[in-house]
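User: Show me an example of a complex going from sequences to structure tokens.

Assistant: Sure. Here are the input components:
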Amino acid sequence: MPKIVDHETRREEIAEALWRVVRRDGIRAASVRTIAAEAGWSAGAVRYYFPDQDGLLSFAMDLVTRRVTERIDALDPKGSALSIVLRYLEEALPLDAERRAEFDVWLAFMAQAQAESGTGTLHEHVDKVHNGLRQLCESLLQALAQSGTLRDGLDLRREVERLHAVIDGLSLHATIQPDRTTPARVRQLLRHHIESLLA
Amino acid sequence: MPKIVDHETRREEIAEALWRVVRRDGIRAASVRTIAAEAGWSAGAVRYYFPDQDGLLSFAMDLVTRRVTERIDALDPKGSALSIVLRYLEEALPLDAERRAEFDVWLAFMAQAQAESGTGTLHEHVDKVHNGLRQLCESLLQALAQSGTLRDGLDLRREVERLHAVIDGLSLHATIQPDRTTPARVRQLLRHHIESLLA
């Protein structure tokens, strides 16, 4: 089905142009016009794929979720429980250029959703990514609990929320001060946090 | 010195008008013109106090730091070491309307600084607030260590970074999903985290 693949590729090209505009100029700069210019397309061609701004923003944000999910699905669940959990979580952390771009876009959506009083399409998408990451934390801690690796007596719901906070906090710090909170440091701190939950 | 006090009050009024614009419309909407309109002043009057945009943004951001510092200085260091540490840290968390406003403004600065590739006035101020919070975490954990309350064998530098990540992660979550990550829940999670470091 070459035609379908082609359309999907074009939609992704447009979404990536939106990412570049958002990362460079902020989300308020992202319009059909600026995104078309960035992608080297006509505004009409962009509108053919995305008739309105909301549809484009939704697709661009879904692309973040889809990429994280694809990377996680592609992981080989071999090794110790700890090393598997760390590899899964690292896919959601801004440890390389691709994942930094995803986090920057999410952050821009988040700040703008906040400025718009927490309603509407932007906020829905921020919510969705947020819930996705919490669910990942939950699945991983449950897997550790079932394999008997987790310390006894932990309140799992509380630990899910704390782990989720650690991950988003580290992502933020890696973004604000990349020279201090390096990818290696983020990995160390995350490993240390998970280890503190183990038996 | 009534005249000096008056000028300072006016500068704070302008900074607060900037906060409102930033929280409502995002940081890119904040210009001398929109801030003057928000404050009910003429653009010329705003320019009398802040000749340029950079000076105004700096003042508005310094006001966040100053307010947090003033609240912390006003705290009465009585009670158990744990309860003192929690009260200090809570002053930096978005647990009421005033602190939510401060965090929103910081977040808007952060996202925009990121869009501007991490240089310039915005980034300097984001950095300053970021370093201030890390230093607060450091002082408090050092105080706990000196009072013999902290668990033996902890890597203090690592725990400072982890605590700082927990705080910023919780702030972010309280902002994204205030109904789930309520002020009471943030306090519980923070207390649980600090308790996990105690002897």
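The lines above are the inputs; the final block is the predicted structure for all two components together. The two ends of chain B are 51 Å apart (CA to CA).
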